[in-house]
Every structure is written in structure tokens, then in C-alpha cells.
């Protein structure tokens, strides 16, 4: 349990710095380029652990398994994380971090409608508090946040929730490490194919002529310099690779419900780190919104732990 506690702390810290570092490099890399690099490197970091788990379960991936990972990789890496990176470009890192942490709202909704998962009273209360928190942060009566950025983070959050629910169908068979590793690997390879397509002159011209310069002639290694290699290494190796590894190890050492406290710590910690590192001011409405989200998360965490204990007994 002590090891599990440290895995939770390390994972929460790394995940809370994710938007901050991505914001710091957002003007140095193409948004799709940075997503490709960090998920490809991150998946390579996870690969030894994933292969070890497959051997332990005496499993070999077949054509259907690869098709499944191609789907989950596309939803998570190509769609969700592309819009996530675009959201960071248009919004404050702290806002993106807090709103993305609300993805369990959509996970619960998709799980209820797609796989018939039971909806508990405390889950509805948590969803309600999270929605109130989101409204407080967005402050629709005096919105100063980029509408384009909000649309991007909503698309990213919804599609990430969809990825989570679809992945859950195979979680018992493969486990979290294998699911995460191969989804990231397939998604980054799909992204590489799309990057190569954008380098075709006629495709690049069509995209540029329609104002989609971010998607035209996307670089792969261009822009990497000695000065930004440390940040690229941090976001790829530490946040994407080790962050997810620590989170998965935390689940193995404790439980899924206990490890999920990582995503309850992040909405509170990320804005504080953004204030210290990026000097992003925390508005009063944002603090109120964060409070609602954290309270909802604590309620959800406590009630889920009670349910888990009752199930065991």
C-alpha cells in the first residue's frame, strides 16, 4: 500500500504538469507533431511492461486485437489528443487541466447508454457538482475564455471518455498496461501516416488555401532544438511514459477506485502549478468552480470505496 501511495503522488504530480509543459512548447511545435512525438515515445516506454504482461497472461495479439487497438488509438491519440493540444494553444493551461479532469462525467454517460452500467445516486451528485463547477469556470455571462478553445477541449474530453468506455470492454482480458501501450502505439502510427499525407503538395495546398495551416505539411522532427529537447523529453518520457506507468502500477498496488484519486488531485494542483510556473492568475470564479469539482470528486471517491468494500465483504 505504501508503494501504491507513492505511485499515486508521482502520477498526480506528473499529470498536473502536463498542460503546463505543453503550453510552454505550444509555440515551438506543431500541435499534431508534439502529440505524435509524445505518444510514440510514451508507448515505447510502456512496451517492455506491456509485453511482460502479455507473456504473464499467455496471450498473443491477433488480427481482431490489432483492429481494436487501431480504433482506440484513433479515438484517443488522433482525435482526442489533437483537439486537446489545440485547446492548450487557445486557452490557459490551468483551464484545460481542470475541464479535462471532468471527463468522468462523459464516461459515466457513455457507460450508462453504451454498456448499461448502473448509475448510482452519488454519481449523479458528482456529475451535478462537476457541471456547476464547469459553468463557474466558463462564466458564460462574462466569458473571457476563447470559445474556440472551449469547443476543442469539449471535443477532446468527450472523445477521451468514449475511448475509456470502449477500452473497458477489453480491460479484463488485457489489463491497463497493454491497453494503454498498444492504443498509444497504434494511435501514434496512425498519426504518422496522416502527417506524411499532409506533406503531399496538393494536400498541403488544399489545407493551406482553406486556412488550415496547422494541418498542412506537418513536421516530424523539424523544430527540435537543444533548448527544447529537455521539455520534449519530459512530456514524452516522464508525463506520457512514466506518468501512465505509475498510474497503472498504483492501480495494481491499491485498486482502480483508490488510484483514481490522481484525477481528483489534478484539478486542485494543476492551477497552483500554472500560477507558480506560468504566472497564470486564478480568477475567483475559477477557484469556486475548482472547489465544486473537487468536492464532487471526493464524494465520488468515498462512495466508490464503500461500494468496493461492500462487494468484497
TrEMBL record:
It comes from Clostridium estertheticum subsp. estertheticum. Keywords: Cell membrane, Membrane, Transmembrane, Transmembrane helix. Signal peptide: none annotated. The chain crosses the membrane at residues 35-54, 66-87, 93-115, 122-141, 147-165, 177-197, 231-249, 256-276, 282-301. The keyword Secreted does not apply. This is EamA domain-containing protein. Residues 3-138, 148-300 form the EamA domain. It comes from the Bacteria. GO terms for cellular component: plasma membrane. The keyword Transmembrane helix applies. It is a multi-pass membrane protein. It is found in: Cell membrane. Its main location: membrane. Belongs to the EamA transporter family.
